[in-house]
Amino acid sequence: MIIRMMSKEFLQSITTLRFLTLVLICCLLLPASISVLSNNYLNEMEDYQGRRSSAERAQNDPEAYSLTVNRPFPQLSALFNGVSLKAVNSIELRTAGRWNRPISAATPSITADLFPAVDLTFIAGVVLSLMALMISFDAVSGEKVKGTLKLLLSNSVSRASIVLGKWLGLTLVILFPLSVGLIISLLLFFGITGVALSGGNWIALGLQFGAIFLFVGLFTAIGITISAFTSTPTRSIFVCLIAWGLLAFIIPQVSLAAADAAAPLPVVQQVERTLRNYFTEFTREIHEFSKAQYTRGRAEGWEFERVWAAYRDRLFNGQMANLRRSNGLEREFWLGVENNERLGRVISMASPVACLSQALITLADTGMESQREFLKRAYDYGERFYGELWLRRGERSSEEIIKSFPRFEFRETALPDRLASAAAPMAVLPVLAVVLLFGAVARFNNYDVR
Amino acid sequence: MRELFMHEIRQNLANGKFVAAFLLLAVTFLISLGMMHQEFLARQENFNESMSLSARDYFYDRLFLWVFEGGSYSSSDTYTCPLGRVKPPSRLLHFCRGTDMEMRQSVEFANRIPIVETTIMPQQDPNLLKLVFQAPDLLFLVKVLVSLIAIFFAYNTITEERESGTLKLLLANNASRTSIFFGKYFGNLVALAAAFTLALLIYLLFLSMLNPSILTGEAPARIAVLYATSLLYMAVFLGIGFVVSSFSQRSGFSLVLSLFAWLLLVFVLPGLATVCAEQMIPVESNNMIERMKLEKAQAMEREYEKNNPGTADGRMTGYGARHDEIRDEINAELAKINDSHQRNQELRAELTVDFSRITPVGSLTYLYSMLSRTGISDVKLYRREIIRLRERLNADLTAMFTNPAMREWYQPTQFDLHPEVVSRVKGMMDLSVRTPFETLSMAESLDSAWIDFLILFAFAVIPLVVSYVKFLVYDPR
Q1: Helix (H) or strand (E) holding B117
Q2: How far apart (Å, rounded) are the C-alpha atoms in residues B11 and B9?
Q3: Nearest-CA distance from B176 to chain A in Å?
């Protein structure tokens, strides 16, 4: 019975102009956005290659004074930007001045914030959810107004199978053009960028598409449930609109505010002030020290070498102490930020849109976890490098150490790890869909068809 | 017509359209206000911090070290000239974040005299989750939500009356098609505008409590123009809904078709403008520019060392500090790279904005950003100011270092600076920190904005005319 209802709903829908528009959206808008994203990806890759080769040149320079740590651009970040376009992606480790110097991520253009790039996370979370609601909002109330619902029920079809059949049919109606659109977009993406995905990324991509499909199914269920609780299509559409606004915009924002209230963020300015004070203390000390050395050395007629060695020792000791102190403070600060972030993520899981974006960017390896991992590894690498510099001071020149120091390696997070952190938000989607369908069936069982 | 107009308004109230629209707008506006105000406060705090005494002390310290080293010994962080400036946030930041990120970075000047500016990392929120769920500013809500609600108001005005059969009755009742059409149009427009206005008034009430400075100076006038712009933009989408509705026979179809138009106009076309501009004017990232500058200076220094063997010394390469003879040449080259990069960036940004301005969303974005003082012209003005400050400081520094008395004031072996130098340096510091930023007046902000008003107006009127003509021959059966 469900199958027959489903095929009826499916066939009925694909012969309407509504379906044609859906096809247009999936096969025109999606590829158009993907070509914009592919273009961005090419720019980012070019920038990364440039950064890498220039870091390589700088390291092999006979007068090298810095090592640069670069974060490779994750392959799937082309489709699911996450935080990859805005977070720090390069850290310069200098042997002079203040050790450790994060460099901003590429700020691609002044207008980036005026016309933000629309990536697949946004299209799936905001646009597809709206489309699913628009396809399903009048599933019950529309048939009631038209009068066909009475006919349908007089046909001795069980009410549960009507709801479930409608849900399956309408979901398939969206998934069909959506998968065609996604395939076209992927072909376009590979054609423009010429990227070869690794095996793990293929699986991640498959999971991401699976999550998007589940999400569409969930929103069709939301539409049908709303439709079963309202009596006219106009009313259902406005309830749908409010639900959409709530899930896509309001809950994610409110959950951030709630997290800020429950686990306050450490104040950036305070940390910066302390870091600055550390550095000021250090430079003052060095200045005073060299002043004293100079006067004393001059009075006692020291060799230049002796003055230099004492100065260098003092400088390196000071730098190392400063680095440890600052890094400790920064770690503590990031821990506070992470707590706030974790809480925000958990609370925002009340909204399926937030769940979907978390799952998508985690699977694409452009989420918060991998960014934190990069920073942690980069700082560890920096401390190892400076430790080496400090240990071998006097034995080897810093240029030699820089040249022979092992290169920084940062690989994409392994698939099982990504899966582990994406599992919770992904699991919310089917659970919520089942709950809603139950609600819709229960409500429809005593729906007044007149 | 008047009766039809009143009827339409009553109907909108009765079926909950008005209430739903008002609720959705009011709630999202207030949430946006809360989140954007946090951002504003963080920016303000940042600005205060950089103007504060402890920051001043820190910069004095670094500046003295820099001067002590004879105007930059090398460009390691210890010895860069720390003169620079931070822009205070716009008071109207809540309305449009715009190019704020660009103006958020504090510029620092580096190298030996003449000093060249370097790009400092923009201050960004440490919480990465806030990059994923970025707080919507009012512009975003108007751009996305208000237009969507307008579409929902309009999509079935004509088709629904046909489907329920009331259109036939109306026409039989001696009502002219013109009065039916305009009664419907204005009835919907007024209901929608009322919902928006009420929500905005609540928003403004809370905003003026949080940030009373929006009640002073030009700000109220700017907000009034913002309001007018939003209404025009709303009319554009209402008109589009009417066109679709009058061209289709069934509500379901007109809904999906108007959503398609909405997606195209709101999300796709602005993105295409960015791509077109990127194709026409390629611009390197800031990272690459810093690298290019370094490599250029290194190459020039090595060239010089090849021609004059035995001049290499232990100082760091790449900052033009190694050889006094070619210092000015190097700095001129670096400034050239910097300036051309910035010019390219500005050109591309302008091109993007100009491309996008032919669409309603582009016009809206342009007007909002200009009125909130976070537009392209504001970035340009900011950069002009930075260049002006750089020239001024360069003149002061050169005057100080070339002064014959400097030999007396400045002796490296003393390890302490002469009071004369100290007072001059403090003067420069104060000059760079205290000089207020110039901002565009409203007339300047809206310099070429008549085009945008015209575009929005055309987009609002043309669909209306088209749907009116179509409605005259609409088949009510």
Answers
A1: strand B116-118
A2: 5
A3: 26
Residue A100's pLDDT is what? 61
pLDDT of residue B26: 94
Cα–Cα dist B119/B106, whole Å = 8
The structural domains of chain B, with segments of one domain joined by +, span 2-472
Taking CA–CA distances from A284, the nearest residue in chain B reads: B61
The first and second tokens of residue B40, run together, are 């504003």
In this prediction, does ipTM exceed 0.85? no
- With CA atoms as reference, the chain B residue closest to A291 would be B415
- Residues from chain B that touch A129, judged by Cβ atoms under 8 A, are none
Nearest CA to B286 out of A110, A435, A310 is that of A110
Q: How far apart are the first and last CA of chain B?
A: 22
Burial A158-183 (b: 16+ CB within 10 A, else e): ebbbbbbbbbbbbbbbbbbbbeebbe
Q: For residue B19, what are the contacts with CB-CB under 8 A and spacing of at least 6?
A: B13
Quick: pLDDT tens for A229-272. 888 887 888 888 889 988 988 888 888 888 888 888 777 767 77
Tell me the chain A residues in contact with residue B244 when contact means C-beta distances shorter than 8 Å. none
pLDDT tens digit sequence for B49-74: 767 655 566 666 666 665 555 443 33
Within 10 angstroms of residue B218's Cβ, the number of other Cβ atoms is 17
Residues B399, A409: Cα–Cα separation, whole Å: 49
- Tell me how far apart the alpha carbons of residues B103 and A343 are, in angstroms, rounded to a whole number: 31
State residue B155's pLDDT score. Answer: 84
Flag if A253 and B35 touch (Cβ within 8 Å): yes
Give, in order, the Cα–Cα distances in Å from B355 to each of A111, A114, B40.
12, 13, 30
What's the token pair of residue A179? Answer: 């998968």
CA angle B60, B63, B65 (to 5 degrees): 110
CB contacts of B60 in chain A (<8 Å) are none
Residue A336: CB atoms within 10 A of its CB come to: 18
> Residue B4: how many CA atoms within 13 Å on its side-chain side?
21
Quote the CA–CA distance of A347 and B262 in Å, as a whole number: 31
Describe the strand order of the beta sheet including B107-110 as a list of residue ranges. Answer: B84-85, B107-110, B116-118
Give the DSSP letter of residue B74: S
Pairs of residues, one from chain A and one from chain B, whose beta carbons lie less than 8 Å apart: 271
Q: What are phi and psi of A105, to 5 degrees?
A: -65, 160
* pTM, 2 dp: 0.83
The structural domains of chain A, with segments of one domain joined by +, span: 1-450
Q: What is the 3-state secondary structure (H, E, C) of B318-381?
A: CCCCCCHHHHHHHHHHHHHHHHHHHHHHHHHHHHHHHHHCCCHHHHHHHHHHHHCCCCHHHHHH
Residues A411-419, mean pLDDT to the nearest whole number: 88
Residues from chain B that touch A117, judged by Cβ atoms under 8 A, are 271, 274
Low-confidence ranges of chain B (pLDDT < 70): 50, 52-86, 104-127, 311-324, 406-417, 432-436
A109 neighbors B349 (Cβ within 8 angstroms): yes
* Residue A104 pLDDT greater than 80, yes or no: no
**Per-residue model confidence as pLDDT tens digits over B423-432:** 777 777 777 6
* Chain segment A317-331, per-residue pLDDT in tens: 887 888 888 888 877
Please answer yes or no on whether A86 and B290 come within 8 Å at the CB atom.
no
Closest chain A C-alpha to B192 CA, distance in angstroms: 14
Phi then psi for A93, rounded to 5 degrees?
A: -105, 105
d(CA A362, CA A350): 18
The residues facing A70 across adjacent strands are: A90
Give the Cα separation of B250 and B253 in Å (integer).
Answer: 6
Q: Hey, what are B307's tokens?
A: 């021609």
Nearest by CB to B133, which of A127, A256, A291? A256
